[in-house]
From TrEMBL:
Binding residues annotated for substrate, in chain numbering: 108, 133-135, 208-209, 213, 283, 310, 470, 476
Protein name: 6-phosphogluconate dehydrogenase, decarboxylating
Subunit-level organization: Homodimer.
Reaction catalysis annotation: 6-phospho-D-gluconate + NADP(+) = D-ribulose 5-phosphate + CO2 + NADPH
Domain of life, per lineage: Bacteria
Gene: gndA
Keywords: Gluconate utilization, NADP, Oxidoreductase, Pentose shunt
Annotated active site: 205 (proton acceptor), 212 (proton donor)
Length: 503
């Protein structure tokens, strides 16, 4: 009999999504240009299923794929973002794909590319997207899924996505995790929700990644302070992260950071982290978020700082030269007796800055949604990030609650719960940032979040002087505090008495 789903791309993510679909009872026929990947898929299926019958099928061409899947076809793509997506769509069209067939792109595509593609293939195929977060384990046992596009396609895809998504225990708000092949989690609330028109799902995933970048960077900054100023070993820092993971900072990223820091390299017997070169890679989604925030005019400084931090890290040779020439402050390490207090300060700094990063990310989604005419449900977006995805954290329940209380909330920082959280923790945040600065330890994400908070809560900013500067050198005009804002004024700076004229 025919398969339910055609699947193209059996790389790490694709293979795991296929096995997840199979675990949930869907019959999948897979195709990849690289036969080794299909062999690896079949091998893993054979390993996992023991003496049960094969759960996945593979084929040798696009045409064969279509002939072995029920019509109208549902074809899922897990191929690298960019040109390969179009390449596969065109190959499928050549192979006979029809206008009512659905193609779902699950890669980390640029959201504007999805919009373009939807238009390009209109009348030829239904182009739908689903952004997937959760890395290979998420793909295998439950990811966070951000679908967008044609609602007709969504009606068909919804039950499938609900099946393979990560699940949350509705009572505790915590992920229900079970990593057993053939025994998927079927209970709980699925982390898959329709985001909106084409493009919106990948936009939301892009912002997820921007937050991910900032979250990771801030954990690295806390690590750096503990390492450089508190002179703690990676194993000691792992212990601190483990403790933090029991409280408000509980999250996947804190958890894996603890695991990394507790790991010893088998060959050298050194802490594993010490043998890893400090040049960060990036594939672009954090950069896209920062660029998008600049384009939309939405301040997201901590996300941008996280991208810059990765760029600066790659200039290792230059840093090596600068390290020998540039001077910093000459302060010794934090005395042992003050260590516990310094650790608490870092904890609170991380917590407050994290609130600001989410405030930036959600603000960006809000502004973009307004620009694009999307109706984004922020409570739901926070809910589908509670499990499966890389930024999953208990904290997301509080964000979801904030948007449940007020769906029109203009910024997370204005929610009563978060107002109180920052009010009661900010002292330590300020001390941690100040102390790092006095010691010459860079904390770009933690400190830019603090500046964001301080600027956000100021009714007056020095932009009055800035407007005057602009008017001085470029006659750019300004509004007056005592007149309607649409009235523009200019000072004739070079004339005697500097007369002001209404423009
Ligand atoms: C996820 C991740 C995933 C991936 C990104 C980020 O949500 O599962 O964000 O999409 O890890 O590619 O990678 P870079 O750090 O290389 O940009």
């Amino acid at each position: 009999s025919l398969c339910d789903i055609g699947f193209i791309g059996a790389g790490v993510m694709g293979k795991n999504l296929i096995l997840n679909l199979a675990d949930n009872g869907y019959r999948v026929c897979a195709f990849d240009l690289d036969h080794h990947k299909l062999d690896a898929l079949l091998e893993q299926d054979a390993r996992e299923r023991g003496d049960q019958p094969a759960r996945v099928e593979t084929c040798n061409s696009y045409t064969e794929l279509l002939s072995r899947v029920k019509a109208p076809h549902l074809v899922i793509l897990s191929v690298p973002a960019g040109a390969p997506v179009d390449d596969v769509c065109n190959k499928l069209l050549d192979a006979g794909l029809k206008a009512d067939d659905i193609v779902v792109d699950t890669g980390n595509s640029l959201w504007t590319d999805s919009v373009t593609r939807c238009k390009r293939y209109e009348g030829k195929l239904i182009f739908f997207t689903t952004a997937v977060s959760g890395g290979e384990v998420g793909a295998r046992f439950g990811a966070s899924l951000m679908p967008s596009g044609d609602p007709y396609a969504w009606a068909r895809i919804e039950p499938i996505w609900h099946a393979i998504a990560a699940k949350v225990d509705p009572k505790s708000g915590q992920p229900i995790e079970r990593f057993e092949p053939g025994n998927p989690v079927t209970e709980g609330e699925p982390c898959a929700a329709y985001i909106g028109p084409i493009g919106s799902g990948h936009f939301v995933k892009m912002v997820h990644n921007g937050i991910e970048y900032a979250d990771m960077q801030m954990i690295c900054e806390a690590y750096d302070v503990m390492r450089s100023a508190l002179e703690m070993t990676p194993a000691e820092i792992a212990e601190v992260f483990r403790e933090w993971n029991e409280g408000k900072l509980n999250s996947y990223l804190i958890d894996i950071s603890a695991e990394v820091l507790a790991t010893v390299d088998a060959e050298t017997q050194q802490p594993l982290v010490d043998i890893i070169l400090d040049r960060a890679g990036q594939k672009g989604t954090g950069l896209w978020t920062a660029v998008s925030s600049l384009e939309v005019g939405c301040p997201a400084p901590s996300i941008a700082e996280a991208v810059f931090a990765r760029s600066l890290s790659t200039r290792k040779v230059l840093r090596g030269r600068a390290a020998k020439k540039l001077h910093g402050p000459d302060i010794g390490p934090v005395p042992e007796a003050e260590r516990a207090e310094a650790i608490q300060q870092l904890h609170d700094a991380l917590y407050c800055a994290k609130i600001c990063v989410y405030a930036q990310g959600f603000d960006l989604m809000k502004l973009a949604a307004r620009e694009q005419g999307w109706q984004l449900n922020f409570a739901e977006i926070a809910r589908i990030w509670r499990a499966g995805c890389i930024i999953r954290a208990v904290f997301l329940q509080s964000i979801s609650d904030a948007y449940e209380r007020d769906i029109k909330l203009s910024n997370l920082l204005l929610d009563d719960f978060f107002i109180e959280q920052i009010a009661s923790n900010q002292g330590n945040w300020r001390r941690a940032v100040a102390d790092a600065s006095l010691r010459g330890i860079p904390v770009p994400a933690l400190s830019s979040a603090l500046s964001y908070y301080d600027a956000f809560r100021r009714e007056s900013l020095p932009a009055n002087l800035l407007q005057a500067q602009r008017d001085f050198f470029g006659a750019h005009t300004f509004s007056r505090v005592d007149r309607p804002e649409n009235e523009k004024y200019h000072v004739q700076w070079s004339e005697k008495g500097r007369p002001m004229v209404k423009v």
